Amino acid sequence: MSSLQARTFTRPIGTAVNHAARLELLENYLSYQEDILRCAQMSLEWLARHAGVKQSACLAVDAESSMLVGIAAYGVVGDDIELFSWPLSDAYDPLVGALQAERPVQFRSYRPNGHAAQASPSPLGRGPFTAIPLGLRTSGVAEHEDLAPGLLLLRAPAITDDIQWLVTVLGQKIDQVRGRGSLAEEARKLRRERTLFFTIINAVTDPIMLTDIDGRLIVANARAEKLFAASEEESEGRRRAVELNNMLFSAALSRSAVEGTPEARELLLVDPSDGSDLLFEVLSTSVEDPREGTGVVSVLRNITDLRRATEQIEENYQKLRVAEAAVRAERDRLNLIIDSVADPIIVTDATGATVLMNAPAEDLFTVVPGASEAASRTVQANDAHFSSFISGLLLGETGPGEIRRGEIGLMNPATAEPIPVEAIAGKVLTETGELTAVVTILHDRREALERARLYEQLKAASDELQARVQAATAELATQNELLRRQAIELEQASRLKSQFLANMSHEFRTPLNAILGYTHMLLQGVAGDLLPGVKRQLQRIDSNGRHLMTIINEILDITRIEAGKMPMQLSEFNLNELVPEVMTELDPVITRSKLTVVPRLWLDLPPVYSDRQKVKQIIVNLLSNALKFTHEGGIQITVGYNEAERTAGVAVADTGIGISPENHEKIFEDFRQVDDSPSRQYGGTGLGLAICRRLATALGGRITLESTMGVGSTFTLTIPLETEQ
Amino acid sequence: MTKPDAPLILVVDDYQDAREMYAEYLQFSGFRVAEARNGNEAVAQAFSLRPDLILMDLSLPGMDGWEATRVLKADERTKHIPVVALTGHALAGASEGARKAGCDSFVTKPCLPDDLVVEVRRMLETVKKA
Questions:
Q1: A26, A335, A553, B9: which sits with the fewest CB atoms below 10 Å from its CB?
Q2: Residues A398, A403, A404, CA angle at the centre, nearest 5°?
Q3: Does any CB of chain B come closer than 8 Å to the CB of residue A569?
């Protein structure tokens, strides 16, 4: 069945009346109603309500066309009953046959007798039904001779009195109406009108419907039916959607009734076919019908797309506003940036008129309300300077993208302070190359000028400094050259001194050799025995000669060391052996001093590789000194060894007069004794310790001193186990 | 008092006091002694006398001690004779120069006659053993 087909729906009647009253009600209705189709429809509905007949149809004989036509149906699914018609000429058709029957005819399953091709279709669809000729009385006697005016087809468990009664009443009505004219014509006319009506309302794409005031459908066009009606066979989802739509519509109607607003209302419904939302505008008008009572005609206009469009417009508008806000924010930000630039910025249009300037620019080019005459004039002057600068750019003296630079002498209107500025102007062009604006930045040159001035000062100072440094350097070079020459001269002098001393010592030694030699020979008795006095005198000569020789040797040693001509004789030996040797050599002196000299040797001392003669010379010297400066007590000669440092040493400790701390270094200097006075108590050249220290240094070692005045002194020689050549 | 077979020592020194002092003491100590005042005399004496040992002062007028020693050590007749150098120059290099010239020993002046005799005896012993 086409979904575009409109249908009339039953209208339930809620009023409770008794049975007799109901019969009378129908009879009255039928007697006043001239429309046979309405009569038939009403009758079927009455049957359904009062006789429990759920499926029924009414057929009538159209005498003019000799056709049996459908005029009403109830509870029938299928083709519209009004389209049903069948020729009466087919005498074998069971329905045509039933017209002549005197009692209800049972149809088990409607089958035309042997004329299957031409059999009329069952207006009630498949299944057994009963056909009752209209006008049949309860007595079973037909009022008319031949054909009944029509048939009532129904499916009912039994043919009750109510049914019989209705058949009679309806039959009479049809007869009555038929007597006044052609039933068929009436029916056809009505049918055309109905068809036209439904065609018209179906042609409207908006859902149109007539409902009762509770929203229940009476008449609906195809579009409305699609939204609000669903048969049992249709899907669950669609039925639910329809149910929901009915509820929504009823609610809308009742709201409308409560508020009494006739104007358009919006109603959101569900499309039963795809479940999407459909927005409608509902125009409802209340109609009064004398028979049907109060109803509501509603026209729904689909405004879903309209709403979407509206929403789209709204959304676009919002976007526009956001964009506008962003632009405004951007502009504010730019303004902030421009204002925060310390240099004045001025934007002028193509005619030279100022479009925009930042705060620093305003200070220069705008007159503050209440400003002095002078300030106003200054602003005018500034303006004039700026305009003449900018006019060059506007007159096209520079090409596109170029920047014009220039210096302008402006003045601060507030302080009348001159402000030399460097103006930098650039053109702002449109895409088509038209000049829209000129942006000028004025850079205060005072700082740059001040900086340049300072730079000049600094440069002058720097130059002066450089000149001084150069002069000083030259002086230094001269001094260095002088020093170098002096050093050479000194070196030469030193060499000459050494040579002189070496020569002198040689010249000393030759006569001394003879003096000592002859004295020695005499003492040896080469010239015979000597008188005791002579021998003593010869011994004095010998003693003083030897002393002189010692002095000469020491001077020679110093000379040799200074000239770097002290030969090193490196060999392996044991320090423990040297101590007794030294003691033996100095035995006469030790004996004479009456001091005890105690040697302390180091067991398991490893051998040292050094100059044996030099080491011995040092120890002899140290011991001689100790003997010379000690009057009572004793002397210890201790051999030491330091495995970690790989050094060995000899310490000579005495109980002598001691040396004050300030003299600890002094005594190692050349020709020095603590007492330098001519009347000094102790003899000697004062070269001994100087030589010892130099020798120790030459051997890679050192001599250290610990001493306390009046208690004694300890001189320690420390040398490496192996001396490098 | 000097034995005829006692070793002959040639004392070369230009300084008369020293030369005679050593000569006298060597004789006193039992040696035979010959004297020369310079290098030329020393070489001539050495060739003619063939001494057992030569005491050679290095600083000599004319041919000096080094040169004389070189001449003697270069001659087959005298090269076996030990030469003990005597010098007042104690600077480094002096003894090395003496050894290079061919001196067998080196004594620094001042040297007591007694010490010299000890050295002479030591050198003669060394030669005898060789």
A1: A335
A2: 70
A3: no
Q: Is B24 on the interface with A (CB under 8 A)?
A: yes
Helix, strand, coil fractions of chain A, as percent rounded to 5: 45, 20, 30
- Interchain CB distance below 8 Å, B17 and A565: no
Taking the Cβ of residue B91 and every Cβ of chain A, the question of whether any pair is shorter than 8 Å is answered with yes
Residue showing tokens 């469009």: A309
pLDDT for the residue A459: 93
Chain A neighbors of B24, CB-CB under 8 A: 521, 526
pLDDT at residue number B41:
93
Q: Is A547 on the interface with B (CB under 8 A)?
A: no
pLDDT on residue A681 = 59
Virtual torsion, Cα A359, A361, A366, A371, nearest 10 deg: 70
pLDDT digits (tens, 9 = 90+) for A298-339: 888 888 888 788 889 999 999 999 999 999 998 888 888 877
> How far apart are the CA of B76 and the nearest CA of chain A, in angstroms?
33
A675 CA to chain B: closest CA distance, Å? Answer: 31
Verify whether the Cβ–Cβ distance A510 to B88 is below 8 Å: yes
Could you read off the pLDDT of A208-256 as tens digits, one per residue? Answer: 888 877 777 778 888 888 888 877 777 888 888 888 888 888 887 777 6
The low-confidence residues of chain A, meaning pLDDT below 70, are: 1-25, 31, 77-80, 82, 109-121, 136-146, 178-188, 256-264, 290-292, 396-402, 563, 565, 670-686
Is residue A506 within 8 angstroms of chain B, CB to CB?
Answer: yes
SS3 B114: helix
Interface test with A, best of B22, B55, B91 (most A CBs within 10 A): B91
What is d(CA A604, CA B128) in angstroms, rounded to the nearest whole number? 40
Residue of B nearest to A516 (CA): B112
Residue-level pLDDT at A6 = 42
Among B124, B8, B11, which Cα is nearest to A517's?
Answer: B11
CATH 3.40.50.2300 given to domain B8-129: yes
Mean pLDDT, each 10-residue run in order, chain B (130 residues):
84 91 92 94 94 91 88 91 82 68 84 90 86
Which neighbouring-strand residues pair with A315?
none
Task: Test B111 with A513 for CB contact under 8 angstroms.
Answer: yes
Distance CA B87, CA B100 (A): 15
Alpha-carbon distance of A687 to A696, in angstroms, equals 14
SS3 sequence of A644-708: CCCEEEEEEECCCCCCCHHHCCHHHCCCCCCCCCCCCCCCCCCCHHHHHHHHHHHCCCEEEEEEE
Angle, helices A36-50/A161-180, rounded to nearest 10 degrees? 180
Alpha-carbon distance of B120 to B83, in angstroms, equals: 10
Quote the pLDDT of residue A526: 83
* Interchain contact A556–B (C-beta under 8 A): yes
Scanning A665-717, the segments in alpha helix (DSSP H) are 688-698
What domains sit in chain A, N to C, each tagged with a CATH number? 7-197 (3.30.450.40), 204-302 (3.30.450.20), 341-444 (3.30.450.20), 445-566 (1.10.287.130), 570-720 (3.30.565.10)
The reply to whether B22 touches chain A by the CB within 8 Å rule is yes
Residue A8, pLDDT score: 46
Q: Do B114 and A520 make contact, defined as CB atoms within 8 angstroms? A: yes
CB contact under 8 A, A521 and B92: no
pLDDT at A653: 93
B109 touches chain A (CB under 8 A): yes
Answer whether B21 sits within 8 Å of A524, measured CB to CB. no
Residue of A506, A512, A513, A561 best to disrupt the B interface, most CBs of B under 10 A: A513
A523 touches chain B (CB under 8 A): no
B24/A521 touch (CB, cutoff 8 Å), yes or no? yes
Give the residue from A205, A209, A228, A206 showing the smallest Cα distance to A219. Answer: A209
